Amino acid sequence: MAAAAAAAEPVAIARNDVAAATTSVSQQDDDESVTTEGADDVRDDPALTKLVSVVAGFERANHEPAANIPPRREKSRLLQFQDSWYKSYPWLHYSPTLSGVVCFVCAKAHASGILKFETKAEPTFINSGFFNWKKAIQKFTAHQNSSCHKQAVLLLHQTTAGQPIVAQLSTAHQKQQQVARRCLLKAVQSTKYLLRQGLAFRGHVDDDSNFHQLLKMQAETDVELRSWLQRTTNFTSHECVEEIQNIFADSVLRTIIADIKNQSKIFGIVVDGTQDINSKEQLSLCVRYVDSDLHVHEDFIGLYQQDDTSGRAIAATIDDMICRVGLDMNFLRAQTYDGGANMDGKYNGCQAIIRDRFPLALHFRCAAHSVHLVAQHATEADAIIQDCLQWVQEVDKLFKRSTKFHRIFETIVTNSGAAVHSSNIKPLCPTRWLCRHSCSLVSCRQI
After folding, report:
1. Strand, helix or coil at 99?
2. Measuring CA to CA, which residue among 432, 440, 411 is closest to residue 423?
3. Distance between CA atoms of 325 and 256, rounded to whole angstroms?
4. Is residue 307 over pLDDT 70?
5. In which band, very low, low, confident or very high, does the pLDDT at 346 lie, cut at 50, 70 and 90?
6. Considering only CA atoms, which of 426, 375, 424 is closest in space to residue 401?
């Protein structure tokens, strides 16, 4: 009898559970929607400690086997949870405390407080639990497509990833900046190459210029550069390219000045002026110094427009140029000019004015100019040499202007058996004898 009583007690308990489950199922069946009802209660529910215990300690949803989940009876049918639902709805989380399933994503997001402003929360899938297996697929699908669930997935992903929307936008912006910076460096390198080789940048049309063609050649193997060039950008404009050129020029100039200051300190200047194609006077300045290995360097510093060609104005310009590049005029030890009165004048010449302020800046007349002038006057003093040079110039003009006489000249040179064959006569410059020394020797041999 005792054994029979013990066996009857679990049956009674099971019947009571089924009755309670049936009542709960009936209550959930009467609810046509679980979307908005009780949303305010979820936000203000003081029993959030119980909610935290549902998802606390879980890094992923608890997929309890269906065999361990109690079935639910509806009238004459016994409804069982299906394991296949975990595959279709991976966010399902079984809570033994609630004896039902909740949405792991929504519960986790709500427990973290990131869904407190969501007005369409679903209490059934957050804190009360769902166990109406009859309408499981219908309710699971509706919840998965709800705005609350989508918002929870997005916010929870951003929280776990550690990058909010602002940070993600910032990351994309940084990537674009990196690509633009790398493409700009390509343009800078192309500018450096053309400057180093002394090639022209522009053409009659910008697309046919050396600069643009060099970039297009690199873009053939660089997809990012090709896309960057197709965008509207000012980094390849004339103004930007000229700015890059000025940056390179300033860099070279700073290097020269640093070498002078660190290795020599004292220096000399070589100044000369000439007119450009627009009949404007241009003053060139070169610095001459000796490095620590006793090697002589002569570097070009700059070209400056000179409106006033008087000695005092030129001296002021030189003083200004030296100060601008960062050198000290007190370390000036030599100054070299041509033989012009405004440069070489004893009282009002540029050298006299500078030496009056800086006595250690000795003046040396340009030896090349002196030799040129001596040679020029020597040739003018002898009529035979003067006529000979004039005839060489006239013959050269004849051969260049007439195709017939040019072929005759080539035939003569070929039949002469000369070791060096020249297709024309080298022109002579009457004021540049040192520069044209080789031309003079070749012309004499040809004559």
Report:
1. coil
2. 411
3. 10
4. yes
5. confident
6. 424
The answer to whether 122 touches 129, Cβ cutoff 8 Å, is: no
Helices (H), 198-297: 210-219, 223-230, 238-259
Residue 302, beta-bridge partner list: 285
In this structure, what are the phi and psi dihedrals at residue 327, rounded to the nearest 5 degrees?
Answer: -95, 160
How far apart, in whole angstroms, are the C-alpha atoms of residue 298 and residue 334?
13
Q: What's the CA gap between 252 and 258, in Å, rounded?
A: 10
Residues carrying CATH 3.30.420.40, the chain: 265-365
- 215 close to 236: Cβ distance less than 8 angstroms: yes
**From the CB of residue 239, how many other CB atoms can be counted at a distance below 10 Å?**
7
Question: What angle do the packed helices 383-401 and 367-381 form, to 10 degrees?
Answer: 100
How crowded is residue 58: how many other Cβ atoms within 10 Å of its Cβ? Answer: 13
65: which residues sit within 8 A by CB, 6+ positions away? 83
Cα gap 101→127, rounded to integer Å: 10
Provide the angle, in degrees to the nearest 10, between the axes of the packed helices 223-230 and 165-197.
Answer: 90
Strand partners for 273: 283
Lowest-confidence segment of 39-48, 199-208, 258-267, 402-411 by average pLDDT:
39-48
Higher pLDDT, 258 or 405: 258
CATH 3.40.30.10 fits 265-365, yes or no: no
Per-residue pLDDT reduced to its tens digit, 40-64: 444 444 444 444 446 666 778 888 8
Burial (Cβ within 10 Å: 0-12, 13-18, ≥19) of residue 309: middle
pLDDT at 257: 93
Kind plus residue range of the DSSP H or E element containing 286: strand 281-290
